[in-house]
Amino acid sequence: MDTLQTVLLLIAMVATMVDSHDYGDALTKSILFFEGQRSGKLPPTQRITWRKDSALRDGFEIGVDLVGGYYDAGDNVKFNFPMAFSTTMLAWSVLEFGKSMNSDLPHALEAIRWATDYFLKATSIPGFVYAQVGDPYGDHKCWERPEDMDTPRTPYAVSKQFPGSEVSAEIAAALAASSMAFRPIDLGYSARLLKRARMVFDFADQYRGSYNDSLGPWVCPFYCDYSGYEDELVWGAAWLFKATKAQMYWNYVRENIHNLENASLNSIEGGSFTEFGWDSKHAGINVLVSNLVALNASDSTPFISNADNLVCSVLPESPTPKSVSYSPGGLIFRPGGSNLQHATSLSFLLLVYSRYLSKANRVIHCDNMVAGPARLVQVARRQVDYILGSNPLNMSYMAGYGPKFPQRIHHRGSSLPSIDQYRGQIDCNGGTQYFNSNNPNPNLLTGAVVGGPDIKDSYSDSRSDFVHSEPTTYINAPLVGALAYFKSHPS
Ligand SMILES: *[C@@H]1O[C@H](CO)[C@@H](O)[C@H](O)[C@H]1NC(C)=O
Ligand SMILES: *[C@@H]1O[C@H](CO)[C@@H](O)[C@H](O)[C@H]1NC(C)=O
Ligand SMILES: *[C@@H]1O[C@H](CO)[C@@H](O)[C@H](O)[C@H]1NC(C)=O
Ligand SMILES: *[C@@H]1O[C@H](CO)[C@@H](O)[C@H](O)[C@H]1NC(C)=O
């Protein structure tokens, strides 16, 4: 072997070493993160111990128990629309990849149950669905720990007169998906979730409208429904079909999918077949349905062709028009904030769709290029590895994973001294000095994945730069499934 070959071999070895990640460790941490986002009365089993009970009177002023659920990100509002999507994705992660979770599976189910217990409360009064708790303007102008919040915890509901089909149908999807996750271990709970899912879906479908119009500035611009509510209705029906096998839900999916069909590549309105996240469910519907109709050609239109087109629009080597950009370091980008949500949710879809392709013994044709299931897995692995540290900065974007990770995440609880460190109240403006400090956050929010680097692969690790430094539940939730897959397929 000559010197050049030795050097090349060494480089290859280093590259392999850098690329091999402890997916099991990352999986454990990605689930642990949800404990840091808990609202309500924490159980004795709580493992993120710097967090304490908070918001114990949510809903009491109107005589409804709305205690529990999750803070969506670095603030202390309970936004049920993205919370429900994160729950659906956690449940989908368990349904697809739960077998690879081993000792993490009970924790994943606990993370789901923390949300579904809350959604049962938020939908307990027929004809109403609670959409949010906490005045977002009051919350956002303060930098306070959830444990000593003194901002208005206003509950917001949609109703027959003031409908919100997107938030209601997404909660129905979350309940239906979760009912399947619980079926093997708690039949009674599973049945309760499914019954409620059907009821909430009926409400969403019967009283149609966007919560944009019903709740106005309380939800926009925070989690404004840009893509309309039709996608959540079809998504909810698809999950109910998967959970019940009732033909009526399948008919609903078939009859209503055409409301989404005309949305073009990259359009926001209507949610194009390339869109998947807390707002648009379109791409998720096609991938979910592909696994339901895999053996029935007459049912596969337009779902399979749209899912194929989604994959073609993501694969870097595809000659067809792209719906994503890639940074020089190889990370997927889409416009808007919290970019890693796109990397995690698209990776999840690629993995699920690769399983369908394998089962159906199919490949995808992107014009003259052909991609098989292994290629989809490879692209997803590249994204996950990037997040875990295989990137130009050698930086993990998951707090507490690897030797180098974000130190100043935009997160109130993580950045303020914990109750154990400081028992007094830190009021609305009392947190400002900590917000402005250059010190690392005192509390490690283990497993939190932040918005991520910019499109040039740089990251400033700045608390005020929430677009890049804020973690959210919907960045982590699809990653839980992807990490479980790679844990059992480490190379
Ligand atoms: C929701 O509100 C935003 C901002 O006002 C708007 O762009 C969007 O079209 C609205 N969506 C629906 C479904 O009304
Ligand atoms: C979609 O586009 C086709 C062709 O332009 C049109 O006939 C159809 O009505 C459109 N559907 C919807 C739901 O807008
Ligand atoms: C395929 O779909 C058609 C139309 O929905 C249905 O009648 C038929 O029973 C399905 N076949 C299978 C094998 O599921
Ligand atoms: C990242 O790691 C590689 C391989 O160890 C090294 O060559 C490179 O200089 C590192 N880059 C940074 C920014 O630390």
TrEMBL record:
The active site is at residues 461, 470. GO terms for molecular function: cellulase activity. It catalyses: Endohydrolysis of (1->4)-beta-D-glucosidic linkages in cellulose, lichenin and cereal beta-D-glucans. Residues 1-20 form the signal peptide. Residues 23-483 form the Glycoside hydrolase family domain. One of its GO terms (biological process) is cellulose catabolic process. This is Endoglucanase. It holds the Pfam family Glyco_hydro_9. SUPFAM superfamilies: Six-hairpin glycosidases. Belongs to the glycosyl hydrolase 9 (cellulase E) family. Keywords: Carbohydrate metabolism, Cellulose degradation, Glycosidase, Hydrolase, Polysaccharide degradation, Signal. The keyword Membrane does not apply. Its EC number is 3.2.1.4. It comes from the Eukaryota.
